[in-house]
Amino acid sequence: EVQLVESGGALVQPGGSLRLSCAASGFTFSKYTMHWVRQAPGKGLQYVSGISPNGGSTYYADSVKGRFTISRDNSKNTLYLQMSSLRAEDTAVFYCVKEWRSIETALVYFDYWGQGTLVTVSS
Amino acid sequence: EIVLTQSPATLSLSPGERATLSCRASQSVSNSLAWYQQKPGQAPRLLIYDASNRATGIPARFSGSGSGTDFTLTISSLEPADFAVYFCQQRSSWPPTFGQGTKVEIK
C-alpha cells in the first residue's frame, strides 16, 4: 500500500524558515517524480514544486521560486521542502504527491497524496 | 498559465440524482485533464485521467468527457459517499493548474 506521510508543519513568523518532510513507502520511491501541492484554508489547490527521480531536475511555481528548495533522499525514501522567507500567503496545508504516468497517453498526473501538513505563517 | 474555471461552485442534489460538473480551460489542454475528489479533512483522490479514463478502483458511476477547453464530470447516481468537493486539473502545460472546485452537497 502506497503511503505518503508529511511532517514538519508548524506556526512560523513571517520571514522565517521551515523544512517539510515526506516519508514514502509501498512503492519504489527512486523511480518516481515527486511533488508538493498546497491548499490554503478554504481554498483550492496550488502547485508548488516537483523533483525528478534522481533529483537532477527540479520545478517550481513562480510564487515560490527563489524561496523554496525541493530535494529528496532516495536512500531514505524521503522528500523534502525547505521553505524560507515565508509570507502570510504561504499559509496552507502542504501535500506530498506522487506522479503517475498514464499508460494510454503517457501524460502524467498525481495518483497518490499524503494527508498533508499545516504551515501557518503569522506573527 | 492555463486557468481552469469550474461551474457551478456548489451543486445541491439528493442521493440517487445525476450530477454534472463542468470545467472550462482558458486555452486548449487537449485531453490532458484529470478530476479529483476531496472530502473534508482528507487528501484529494484521483478519479479520472486523460479526460475520460477512470482511475483504479473508481466506480463506473463516475465518468468524464470532453476535450480541448470544455470538460464534464458526471456522477450517474449520487451515493452518500459522493458528497464532496471535486477539482479538475490540467497537465497540458507548465505549471499544472487546478480549478477552484465544485462542492456537491446534499439537498
Can you describe what's shown?
The complex is a heterodimer of chains A (123) and B (107). Chain A has strands spanning 3-7, 11-12, 18-25, 34-39, 45-51, 58-60, 68-73, 78-83, 92-101, 108-113, 117-121. In chain A, the strands form two sheets. In chain A, strands 2, 4, 5, 6, 9, 10 and 11 form a seven-stranded mixed β-sheet that branches. In chain A, strands 1-3-8-7 form a four-stranded antiparallel β-sheet, with no helix packed on it. Chain A is mostly beta strands. With 107 residues, chain B is mainly beta. Helices cover 0% and strands 50% of the residues of chain B. Chain B is built from no helices and eleven strands. Chain B has strands spanning 4-7, 10-13, 19-25, 33-38, 45-49, 53-54, 62-67, 70-75, 85-90, 97-98, 102-106. In chain B, the strands form two sheets. In chain B, strands 2, 4, 5, 6, 9, 10 and 11 form a seven-stranded mixed β-sheet that branches. In chain B, strands 1-3-8-7 form a four-stranded antiparallel β-sheet, with no helix packed on it. Chain B starts with a strand and ends with a strand. The A-B interface holds A 43-47, 59, 61-62, 95, 100, 102, 104-105, 107-111, 113-116 and B 31-32, 34, 36, 42-46, 49-50, 53, 55, 87, 89, 91, 94-101.
